[in-house]
Amino acid sequence: MAATGLSNVAVITFNAVPAVSRTFKYDRLGRMALENRRRYCERHGYDFISDVAIASDRPACWAKIPAILEAFHAHEWVLWADSDALTGHDAGGIEPFLDPSCDVIVQAHDRYYQRLGISVAEGKRRMPINTGVFLIRATAWSASFLRRAYARTEFVSRGEIWDGIGEQEAMTALLHEAPDDLGRVKYVEGLQAPPRFHEPGTRFMHLYGNHARHRVPPAECAEILDRWESAIHLGEPLPKDAIRFHWCCIQNKDPTDPVTGGDLRRYLYEPLDLVESRET
After folding, report:
1. pLDDT in tens, 122-156
2. What is the residue extent of each domain of the chain?
3. Residue 27 DSSP class
4. Lowest CB count within 10 Å: 113, 169, 198, 240, which one?
5. Alpha helix locations (H) across the chain?
6. Could you name the CATH architecture of 9-206?
7. In which region does residue 201 sit, left (phi positive, over 0), alpha (psi from -120 to 50) or beta (all else)?
8. Is residue 63 within 8 Å of 26, Cβ to Cβ?
C-alpha cells in the first residue's frame, strides 16, 4: 500500500491534554514525550507525525487509528507510541524489529504475566496485543483490521474522565473473533517495558496508568518532574528514579480526588520503590 521512494518508517505520537486534567499525565509527561520523540526521529531519520486530528465523538486514544491509516499512504511501516512512553537519549532504532513476514509487531509481556501469577498463554488470551507501543506494516490486512476496529463503537467510552477502555479492547475483540489472525502478530522483546521491567536497550519506557493514589508530596513531585523535563530537553540520559517519576505523572494531584487508577500493587510496586535513590 505504501508509496515507493518515500520514507520507510513513520513514528506517530500526539498529546491531547483533557479539559479536566487531574494528574500530570498529559500536561507534563505528554509534552515531554513529544520533544523526546522528535529527538529520537531526528537521530534515526524517521518521519515524525504529531499533528493528528481528534474526533469529537470518542476519546483521543482512538485517533491513532485514522492517523496510522493516513500514514500508510507514504510509509511501509508505522510505529505508534503513546504520549506516556519515553525513549532513552541513546535508544537504538526499530529496524531490528521489522519483519516483512508479519503485519503487527508488539512487545511480549511474559515477565508481566509471570509476576501476576498467570501463564503466558492465559496472558496472551487476555491481552493479545498492547497498543501502547507497536509496529504495523502497511498491508491490505492491516488497513482492514484498523478500519474494523474503529467501527467497534461499543468500546467507545464516554464521560468526563477517560476510563482506559478504547481501541486496544476493540482490536482484542477482533483477534478473539478471528484467532487465526494472531499468526500475523509477532511478539518481541525490547520494544517497550514499564519501569519495573525496563532494561538497557529497551526502546521505550512505558509509563502507563492514570488517576492513581496520591503518594508523592507536591514539592518533591515538582522537583522530579522538572529534572526529567530538563534531561529530555537537553538530550541527556533519563534520570534513574523512573518509578518515582512514573508515580508523579499518574497520581492524582489532589489527594482528595477519587482514585480510579489503583495503588502501588496495580503497577507491581512496593512502598520502598517510591523512595529509591537517584543520581546526584
Report:
1. 888 888 999 999 999 999 999 999 999 999 999 99
2. 9-206, 218-275
3. I
4. 240
5. 31-44, 64-71, 110-116, 120-126, 140-150, 167-177, 218-234, 242-250
6. Alpha-Beta Complex (3.90)
7. left
8. no
